[in-house]
Specification:
Blueprint (H helix, E strand, L loop, with lengths): L8 H4 L4 H10 L1 H11 L6 H13 L24 H15 L15 H4 L9 E5 L4 H11 L3 H11 L5 H10 L5 H15 L3 H5 L9 E5 L2 H9 L4 H14 L53 H12 L6 E4 L13 E8 L2 E7 L3 E8 L8 E6 L10 E7 L2 E6 L3 E8 L8 E2 L11 E2 L11 E7 L8 E5 L7 E6 L12 E2 L3 H10 L11 E13 L6 E11 L4 E8 L10 E6 L13 E7 L5 E7 L3 E8 L3 E4 L2 E5 L6 E7 L4 E3 L8
Parallel strand pairs: 3-7, 15-17
Antiparallel strand pairs: 1-2, 4-5, 5-6, 6-7, 8-9, 9-12, 10-11, 10-13, 13-14, 14-15, 15-16, 17-18, 18-19, 19-20, 21-22, 22-25, 23-24, 23-26, 26-27
Helix pairs in contact: 2-5, 3-4, 3-5, 3-8, 8-9, 8-10, 9-10
C-alpha cells in the first residue's frame, strides 16, 4: 500500500459500534490474553482474570477508558481493518493505565481505576488460569520482572505479529514514555525465551479464558445465609456507630480467613527436619527447619496464609521490586511461627520468595502486615538470617540453623573487636541497632556470623540490614598482587577489608530498599600520587540485587589520619555488569589537587589495563595501569583504557559505558 493509500490515524480511529463489537467477539481470547499479560503482576491471578475480561468488554467505542480516546496508528502492509487496531489500542491503553494514579491522587488510596465496579463480577468462586509446566512458570517469572509496557510489547511482537515500528507507535499512542526502550526489553526477553516463545505464550498458563474455579468457604457462606435476616436490623445500628465514631473497628479488624479459599493449608506446609541442614549439599532456606513456639498453632498460620492469599483491607503490604505477590504455591515451607516482642510472626519460603506475616499479639483480629521478598538462589551467606522484628530503631533476626555464633560490630570502628550477640534456642537474636537511613553516619552496625564446623570450617562473614527481609552479605576483593592470579571476593573480616569498608561504609544507606542481596568492595588499583602525596586506592563497590542487575560506585581514597574519612565518589553506574565476574575490567578518573595547589587529572585501571588515553581539554597517553597529568579545574575529558587483549574500555559512568 502506498503512502497516499494508507488510512490516516484520524480516519482509522473512527470505528463503528457494530464493527468493534464484532472484533471483540471474534478476537476475545487474544484481547483478554493481551490484557492479562500486561496488567500488573502485583494483582492476584483471580483479580487479573476478572480485570482482563472487564477491560476487553469495556473496549467498545463510547466507554472512556482514559482521559481521551487513544490515537490508532496507521495501518501498514495490509494489516487488518481499523476496527481491529482500534480495539486493540483501547484494551492496551486501559491495561497499561490500570494502576496509574492521577497527579495529586493520595498515595494511600488505590488507583481510581481499581475502585470502579466493572463487570464481570464473581461471587463465591476463585478463578485461576490452568497451571502450565516449568517453562511456562519460568517465563511468567521473567515477565513479572519487567515493566508493563515491555510485557505488552513482547505479546504484540510474538502473538500479534506486529513489526517493531508498529509496536512503538501503538505504545506511544497508549501514552507510554520512551516506547523504544520497552520494545528493546521485549527483544531481550525474546532472545532469552528462545524459539518456543509463541508456544509458551499460547499455553493455558496465560489463557485467562480457560480457567479453573474453586469455591470460597461453603459452610461459612451457608451460615451467613441463614443469619442474613439479621443483617437488615444491624445495618442501621452499624451506620449509627460509624457516624458517631463510637466503637469503630479498624479496617483490618475482621476474620482474615473469611471468604478465602486457601491454596495451601497448615497441614500441607513443608516442614524440614531439624537436622537436615547438616546432611545436605544445598545449604539455603530449604534446609531451615520449622521453628518457633507457635509452629503448631494452626489458627495463627491459617490467618497468615489467608492474608498472603487475599490480603484484607487495612493490611500493610510491602512487596520488593520485581517480586510476585501471588498466593502461596503447593510447596510452601514453614520457617518460623512465634511471638517476638509484641508481635506474632510467621515466616514462609516457597522456593523463590520469603514472606513475613505479623499481627499484634494482643489483637489477632486487627490489622496485620505482610512483607514479600525474593530469595531465589540464596546460599550459606544470603540465607543466613531473616528479619523477624523491626521496632523503635531495633532489629531482631532469626538466624539459620547452621549459624553457631553471632557478633555485632561497627564498620566505622575497624580496629574494635566484635561484641557477642545472644541468641535464643530457636535462633532469634537479641535486638540490635538498625543501620542509619538518611542523615548523619556516626556508626554502621553489622552482624558478624560464624557458620558451624559441620558445614564449613572457620567461616565467618558480615551481613547488614538494607531494608529487606534478608540482610545483605558484605564481601571484599583485595588489591591485585604482582604476578598473582586474579583475586576472588572473600569475606570482609580481615583487617584490610575492615579498613577499606570503614572509608566507604556510609554509602550503604543509599542502597536501602533496593532489593540488594550482596555488596562487594573491590580495591582494584593503587596509585602513587604526584608531588609525593602518598598512595591512593581506587575501589569499586558493587551492589548486586536479588533480581540480577547491579549498581556500582567507584570511590577514591587518599591517605588520611582518620580511619573513617569518607572516600571520594568519582563514578557510578546503574544496571551494569561492571565490577562483577561478567565485567572484570574497569577504568576511572578524577580531578585531584596536590598540597601545593597544583591540579591534576588522575586515572587508574584494573589488572588487565595496559594503557590509558585521555582526550578533550586534556590530551595524554600513559602506559601501565595509572595516569597522572596536570589539568585545569574539572576538565571535560574522555578517558579510555587499552586491555591486554587489544580491546578498549570506557570509563565507568561515561555515556558510552552506560
Amino acid at each position: 500500500m502506498s503512502t497516499s493509500q494508507r488510512p490516516s490515524a484520524k480516519v482509522s480511529g473512527r470505528v463503528a459500534l457494530d464493527q468493534a463489537e464484532a472484533v471483540i467477539v471474534d478476537q476475545y481470547t487474544r484481547l483478554v490474553r493481551l490484557a492479562y499479560l500486561t496488567l500488573p503482576h502485583t494483582l492476584s491471578r483471580h483479580r487479573r482474570v476478572l480485570v482482563a475480561h472487564a477491560l476487553v468488554q469495556r473496549a467498545l467505542p463510547g466507554f472512556r477508558i482514559g482521559r481521551a480516546a487513544p490515537r490508532v496508528p496507521e495501518q501498514r502492509r495490509g494489516r487488518p481493518d481499523p476496527a481491529v487496531a482500534g480495539t486493540r489500542a483501547r484494551v492496551l491503553r486501559s491495561a497499561l493505565a490500570h494502576d496509574r494514579r492521577p497527579r495529586g491522587w493520595p498515595g494511600f488510596l488505590p488507583p481510581p481505576r481499581t475502585l470502579r465496579p466493572m463487570l464481570p463480577m464473581v461471587w463465591g468462586l476463585r478463578l485461576f488460569p490452568r497451571a502450565g509446566g516449568g517453562e511456562e512458570i519460568a517465563l511468567g517469572q521473567v515477565l513479572s520482572e519487567v515493566p508493563a509496557p515491555a510485557r505488552a510489547a513482547f505479546v504484540l511482537l510474538q502473538l500479534e505479529g506486529l513489526s517493531r515500528s508498529e509496536v512503538v507507535e501503538l505504545l506511544a499512542a497508549a501514552d507510554v514514555p520512551r516506547p523504544e526502550r520497552a520494545v528493546d526489553t521485549a527483544g531481550d526477553l525474546e532472545a532469552a525465551a528462545g524459539e518456543t516463545t509463541e508456544t509458551l505464550l499460547r499455553s493455558r498458563e496465560f489463557d485467562a479464558c480457560s480457567v479453573q474455579t474453586r469455591p470460597t468457604d461453603l459452610l461459612r457462606r451457608r451460615r451467613r445465609y441463614q443469619l442474613s435476616w439479621l443483617a437488615a436490623g444491624l445495618v442501621a445500628l452499624c451506620c449509627a456507630i460509624l457516624l458517631t465514631g463510637v466503637g469503630a473497628a479498624p479496617p483490618g479488624e475482621r476474620d482474615r480467613t473469611a471468604d478465602v479459599q486457601l491454596a495451601v493449608t497448615p497441614d500441607q506446609l513443608v516442614r524440614t527436619p531439624p537436622d537436615a541442614w547438616a546432611d545436605t549439599s544445598r545449604v539455603d532456606f530449604t534446609a531451615w527447619p520449622a521453628r518457633g513456639a507457635r509452629a503448631d498453632d494452626d489458627e495463627l498460620i491459617t490467618r497468615a496464609l489467608a492474608t498472603w492469599t487475599d490480603p484484607p483491607r487495612g493490611t500493610r503490604i510491602g512487596v520488593a521490586r520485581s517480586t510476585s505477590a501471588e498466593p502461596p504455591p503447593g510447596q510452601t515451607q514453614l520457617l518460623y511461627a512465634g511471638d517476638v516482642g509484641r508481635e506474632a510472626v510467621v515466616l514462609f519460603h516457597d522456593g523463590r520468595r520469603v514472606v513475613r506475616y505479623a499481627e499484634a499479639v494482643s489483637s489477632p483480629s486487627g490489622s496485620a502486615s505482610l512483607t514479600v521478598s525474593r530469595s531465589d538462589e540464596a546460599d550459606v551467606t544470603t540465607a543466613a538470617a531473616l528479619v523477624v522484628s523491626r521496632a523503635s530503631g531495633k532489629i531482631r533476626y532469626l538466624t539459620a540453623p547452621w549459624i553457631a555464633e553471632a557478633q555485632t560490630r561497627d564498620l566505622l570502628t575497624p580496629d574494635s573487636p566484635g561484641r557477642p550477640l545472644d541468641m535464643s534456642d530457636e535462633g532469634v537474636t537479641d535486638a540490635v541497632a538498625q543501620p542509619p537511613g538518611k542523615g548523619p553516619c556516626d556508626s554502621l552496625p553489622v552482624l558478624q556470623l560464624r557458620s558451624s564446623g559441620k558445614i564449613v570450617e572457620k567461616h565467618a562473614f558480615l551481613v547488614t540490614d538494607l531494608g529487606g527481609l534478608a540482610p545483605a552479605h558484605l564481601s571484599y576483593t583485595p588489591l591485585p598482587g604482582t604476578g598473582a592470579p586474579p583475586r576472588q571476593p572473600r569475606e570482609a573480616t580481615s583487617g584490610a577489608a575492615l579498613r577499606s569498608w570503614a572509608r566507604t561504609a556510609c554509602r550503604l544507606p543509599e542502597l536501602r530498599h533496593s532489593g540488594v542481596r550482596a555488596v562487594n568492595q573491590w580495591d582494584f588499583a593503587e596509585q602513587d600520587l604526584p608531588e609525593q602525596g602518598g598512595k591512593a586506592v581506587w575501589s569499586c563497590t558493587r551492589a548486586s540485587t536479588w533480581r540480577g542487575p547491579g549498581d556500582v560506585l567507584v570511590q577514591f581514597r587518599t591517605p588520611t589520619t582518620s580511619a573513617t574519612a569518607p572516600a571520594k565518589l568519582v563514578g557510578q553506574a546503574r544496571s551494569t555488569a561492571a565490577c562483577s565476574r561478567f565485567g572484570q575490567h574497569i577504568v576511572a578518573a578524577t580531578p585531584w589537587t596536590a598540597g601545593s595547589g597544583r591540579r591534576y587529572l588522575l586515572a587508574a585501571g584494573s589488572r588487565e589495563v595496559t594503557g590509558i588515553e585521555v582526550t578533550g581539554e586534556v590530551d595524554a597517553t600513559e602506559r601501565g595501569r595509572t595516569l597522572a597529568v596536570r589539568a585545569p579545574k574539572d576538565p571535560d575529558v574522555t578517558v579510555r583504557a587499552r586491555l591486554s587483549d587489544g580491546e578498549t574500555l570506557d570509563e565507568v559512568g561515561s555515556r558510552t559505558a552506560r
